[in-house]
Amino acid sequence: MSTEKTKTIRATTKKSKSDTKRNVFGECAGMFVKLYHRACSVLFPANIKCLVCGDDLAQKQEIEICEKCRCKLHSITESECCMRCGAPITGQGSYCLNCQNYDTEFDIARSVFVYESEIKHLIAGLKYNNKPYLSRTLSQFLAQKYRDLKWQADLIIPVPLSEARKKWRGYNQAQLLAEGVSDILGIPVNTETLVKIKDTETQASLGLTERRNNLLSCFKVLDKYAVRGKKILLIDDVMTTGSTASACTHELKRAHAGRVMVLTIAHGKQDIPTQSGIDSVKNWIN
User: Fold this and answer.
1) DSSP H or E stretch at residue 27
2) Smallest Cα–Cα separation from 105: which of 198, 27, 216?
3) 204: phi then psi, degrees, rounded to nearest 5
4) How far apart are the first and last CA of the chain?
5) Phi, psi of 194 (to 5 degrees)
6) Which of 93, 151, 181, 217: disulfide with 274, CB 3.0–4.6 Å?
7) What does each of the 286 residues of the chain score in pLDDT, given as a tens digit?
8) Euclidean distance between CA atoms 36 and 40, whole angstroms
């Protein structure tokens, strides 16, 4: 056997062993997280304490946040957001410059809160700190926003995670939110049709153009008939530039979905300017 062929075989064997170890480790981590989540339902029963300050709740309530803490949450009203993407905006005008100057694939998007303070901490707990029980209250906020907007959807779809990231985290936070909203509103949820087929760099550290490029060809619709002609409610935790929602919508509309409405818990507060704030556009985009 040639030296070159021997090296190739050894390299292939080494990679195979490495992949096997990674898969086994990922599966073990996933099993541990699932057990932890089951324990959470016992350790953190509903309607006992405020999820923000930890004080006892005076009574049983669907939104597990006391009145004192709810007053601190910055809701986004229709009068202070971009009419297309729902971003908090400053200056005169109805649309942020992102929606004026760039194509957004989705039809409309709204968020319940500005991504700051208490809401930021709750989302971080759900997303990064293994607190799936937080989705109970956050789903209630989403459902109430949907009712207020008087939207009409046929199907709820969560923004998907890649299999690798979902296995590591143990769950997809957007799926937990979507399933919670489905239970409240009675709208069917589909968690299998829209999938993420490529693991990507996290969006948090990227600029607008980088975010868009990072998500090229990342999502895929597996069952076109499941979404054809349907009005889709796309659920996620946070929206910043709308790049993820646009990438998902692009695939849904390629599969001939009808209207795509995006609903998130929070929208990043970047003081996205309207046309009257032209001087700050370059800094925001970069």
Assistant:
1) helix 3-43
2) 216
3) -55, -35
4) 55
5) -95, 120
6) 93
7) 555 555 555 555 554 554 555 455 445 555 555 565 555 555 556 678 999 999 999 888 999 999 999 999 999 999 999 999 999 987 778 888 888 877 789 999 999 999 999 999 999 999 999 999 999 999 999 999 999 999 999 999 999 998 888 888 889 999 999 999 999 999 999 999 999 988 765 645 555 555 555 666 789 999 999 999 999 999 999 998 898 999 999 999 999 999 999 999 999 875 444 444 444 433 433 3
8) 6
User: Is the separation of the CB atoms in 281 and 254 below 8 Å?
Assistant: no
The token pair at 27 is 């599966």
Distance (Å, whole) CA 286 – CA 284:
6
Q: Contact 82/94 with Cβ under 8 angstroms?
A: yes
Does residue 239 sit in helix, strand or coil? strand
